[in-house]
User: What shape does this take?
Amino acid sequence: MNKSQEFIIRFWPLAALLTAMAATPPSVLAAEVQMPEVVVSAKSDKSLKPVVSTRLKTSDTAALLSDEPGVSLQTGGGVSSLPVVNGLGDDRLMVCVDCMEITSACANHMNPPLSYLPPSNVGSISVNAGVTPVSMGGDNIGGTIVVESVAPVFASNGKKVVQNGSISSYYRSNNHARGVSVTSSVANNNLSFGVTASHDRASDYFDGHGNRVTSTYYESNNLGLTLAAKTDSGVITVKAGHQSIPDQGFVNQWMDMIDNDASFINAGYKASYDWGKLDASAYWQNTWHKMDSGREKLEFPLKMPHMPMETRGINIGYSIKPEFRISSNSLLRIGNEYHRFTLDDLWPPVAGSMTMSPNSFLNIYNGERDRFVLFAEWESRPNDQLTTIVGVRNEQVRMDTGDVHGYKDSNGMSPMVTNYKRDSDAFNLLDRRRTDSNWDISAMAKLEPSKTASYELGYARKTRSPNLYERYAWSTMWMCSGMLGWFGDGNGYLGNPDLKPEVAHTISISADFHDSDKRDYEVKVAPFYTYVNDYIGVEYFGASTSGTRNILRFVNQDAALYGINISGKTSLWKSGGFGSGKIGGTIGYVHGKNLDTGNSLYHQMPLNLRMTIEQQISGWTNVVEVQVVDKKSNIEPLRLEPKTSGYALVNLRTAYQYKNLKLDLGVMNLFDKFYYLPLGGVNYDQSLEASGKPLYFDALAGQGRSFMIGMTQSF
Assistant: This one.
């Protein structure tokens, strides 16, 4: 019995209940409920703006942000890409999923935070880049992404009980991606209970030349429960869920994910009082994660050997954030937060192997990372035109890890055995406990001199401590160091216990011009500059066994990033036989430079443009989307980053809404364009030596043309 069958059998009674509830005749429902569209924000005032739903074209929650100014995606698995904001990504961003701060429990970051919430269950996403209020999170230098699942629904307008639900499915032709999601809830005036479930699956995709890109398959299963209760002052919400990913290929990594089982429970309380507001939450999240050479890497011609890797990560935390109304025009926010992440990363022995037995390889053992947080923030509105926010935040970050050893723990004739012993002994003699005292400061001002213009100016000092792998990955051997790295570049990585926290100083300015209602037109221009002291970069340590890749050691350096994001929209027509139409788009440019080496920072998105023309008429929504990306010539030579050519893609989508039924159709990459992904890393599968051919490392090609169809029935 495979993992998918086990998941279905385990939860089939719940699935039956969902179907029964969803099939309730509309006549007994208290109200029609539509699935909420994804909403995104890139503004410091936390306001949200609606965007066209992109769920049809992706099973990856991070991809819901791909249309936002300054946001790009670093390629991972099919449901596990890593968002990059203004040139800073992965752990340099704080990602909160339903108030949980989840740390990736994987040496290759195959299970990033956004992979734990499927797109079908997303209620809202907010992106706050660069200069952000200290109340929105610390331990990052690039910004904050906050994701919330669909909010609980309560009965209203005198109704005793309200029931609602939806069934949604889709199919994408290129990689035979298919999926189904079900939501259902029942509520009265004071209690609400909801259930969500989803299944997503895909084979390998094909590039614009019709070539199969191996190790891009995936399968993901998710189940979520929500119980909410109203009190006199607010709402108590308890959420729980489970995820099973039995397979996910990673074409730009040595390993694939062969199992990821994760469970969570969190509780939150939001309330309003005479003195202000209270936002409190607590959570627990547990992940069991396994990697190995996936089914395609084991096949000819790749012929990768088995190398099992097992990880367990646990996230525990809480936050208490009261907001006090000091006067009619000022607020004081204070907060206390705690986050603990523990990690055990071991590699079981391989039977019959001379080098990968008889012991388990302890990569990170009893790893601990604790954050203790206090902050205070003052928001003031001295007049109708000006709003200011000033805050300070301190985080005490404590890290430690236990003793380690390699597959063999005694000296022997083999140099590999000697290296195991040498490296682990040197590591175990170290005092590995580290404590960082990190200070964040933010100051922002927003001026609205009229109803048609606003200006924002901000400065932030933000700090991020290294992760456990950056400090504690200990083996200098190519075979072991090559198993570590979330960069998709095929290189090996070595930790550095003496790393200092990154400290970023960011200045941002924005000007927003719009009509008084922000309906007819809006143009926003937002340049930024970031200087990073003690940026965690890399230095050369050694060469791979074949000599085609490098072993790189994490080291502190200085860096600078600057760029500009331009976004806008305007109405084209409003009436007549063509319905209404509008055009919108974004332009993004970022350049990151290592000030110590003079080289470009790794994975910087080239100049890019996205433009969308949308028409709405008689229940139809028609979209033409154009994406243009410049060539990538600024690369990081130590990581052997490949250059990529420029390209242009055209996508078409249409949707028809009839009462509670929605039909989606579309085609991505209409002209079947062949192109390389600027942030895709290398095609590691393609580079593996086969039939005596030398190793080579091409950039990763993007997906060719794909036809899509989806349907959602709401009840």
Summary: The two ends are 34 Å apart (CA to CA). The chain has one domain: 3-714.
